Amino acid sequence: MEHALGPVLRIAQYALLMGLFGWSAFWLLGLRSFDWLRAERAPGFAVLAALVAPVVSAALMLMSIAAMMGVPVADLDRPMIEAMIFGTDIGFAFIVRSGLLFAGLAAILALRNRRAALVFAAGCYGSALVTLGWSGHAAATEGGLGLFHRLNNGIHLISAGLWLGAIGWFLVLTFRCYKSPDETQTHAVLKAMHAFAPMGISLVALVAVTGTVNSHLIFGLPNVAVTFATPYGILLAIKLALVAAMVAFGAHHARVSRGAATAMKDGNVYPAQALGALKRTLIAEFLLGVLVIGLVAAFGSMSPTMM
User: Fold this and answer.
1) How many CB atoms lie within 10 A of CB 36?
2) What's the rounded Cα separation, in Å, for the pair 157 and 250?
3) Using H for helix, E for strand and C for coil, what is the string for 48-104?
4) Sign (positive or negative) of CA dihedral 265, 271, 273, 276
5) Contact 73, 2 (CB under 8 A)
6) What are the residues whose beta carbons fall under 8 Å from the beta carbon of 155, sequence distance 6 or more?
7) What is d(CA 18, CA 6) in angstroms, rounded to the nearest whole number?
8) Residue 77, Cβ neighbours under 10 Å: how many?
């Protein structure tokens, strides 16, 4: 049971942190001109995710301690837990992450139209996301190269989180406008989706470059053929294929939103018609993003030489 629960908690932690960061950061960066969004408080799903995130992090930490000690979670005692939390790198990362998660939760609960609270929440969740690289493959690299590996991994996660946050926001806004058509709001969403294209390209480029650097630091690019023959390599190849599909969907959305925004401006198409072409592909892109998060969480704890 515990062996099955560990990967589930790891995936949940990645999804929660990337989701919370992407939600808050893209609201600030990509939707700042949307006056009709500023009046809203933090949605229920964001509050729930912020409440669950520290619980999942603590549960995963206990599972990790039990695995390292070779005992069931129920057999852990206070000295064991304290020794691992206060005496190891993974414990230090957990302490920092927990503080950031509770601070982010406080900011979300205090949001109520305060931009400063949203900025603070985005900073907390972005920093918490970076701490995920303080253990695993990045933490295994020592010295100055290890510091560079952690920094590179942090940029990779931040870029991916912002990209996924944009997809999630556009999906929510598309459904909202589709159910309650409003020409002004629909046109604003379509324009924002088209305007996101340069930022989206930059984020994809950062994800690709930092991902390539991560791969080289983990197993060495000259060993890529051998690595792809391992379970780790197979999951990595699947992840790359899913990301490529997401990029294709993103290009499709930019093209469709540009054409729809122009057509709406000329009065040649109704809001429902403009959004209907985007709804299904946004769902597909979002689901692919969820699968990618699951794969990253899964093979992030695997060895590239594992057979």
Assistant:
1) 10
2) 19
3) HHHHHHHHHHHHHHHHHHHHHHCCCHHHCCHHHHHHHHHHCHHHHHHHHHHHHHHHH
4) positive
5) yes
6) 206, 210
7) 18
8) 9
Q: Cα separation of 73 and 273, whole Å?
A: 54
Specify the residue for token string 């159910």. 179
Is the separation of the CB atoms in 162 and 205 below 8 Å?
Answer: no
Rounded Cα distance, 252 and 284, in Å: 12
pLDDT tens readout for residues 110-154: 876 577 888 899 999 999 999 988 776 666 666 777 788 888 888
> Which residues of the chain, if any, have pLDDT below 50?
39, 307
Q: What's the Rg (C-alpha) of the chain? A: 21
Which tokens go with 173?
Answer: 């806004």
**CA distance linking residue 157 with residue 155, whole number of Å:** 6
Contacts of residue 250, defined as CB under 8 A and 6 or more positions apart, other chains included, come to 197, 200, 204, 285
Residues 61, 85 contacting (CB under 8 angstroms) = yes
Give the pLDDT confidence score for residue 307 in this predicted structure.
44
Ordered alpha helix ranges (H), 131-230: 137-140, 143-179, 183-219, 224-227
Amino acid (1-letter code) at residue 89: D
Q: Exposed/middle/buried for 128, CB within 10 Å: 0-12, 13-18, 19+?
A: buried
Residue keyed to tokens 């590996």: 149
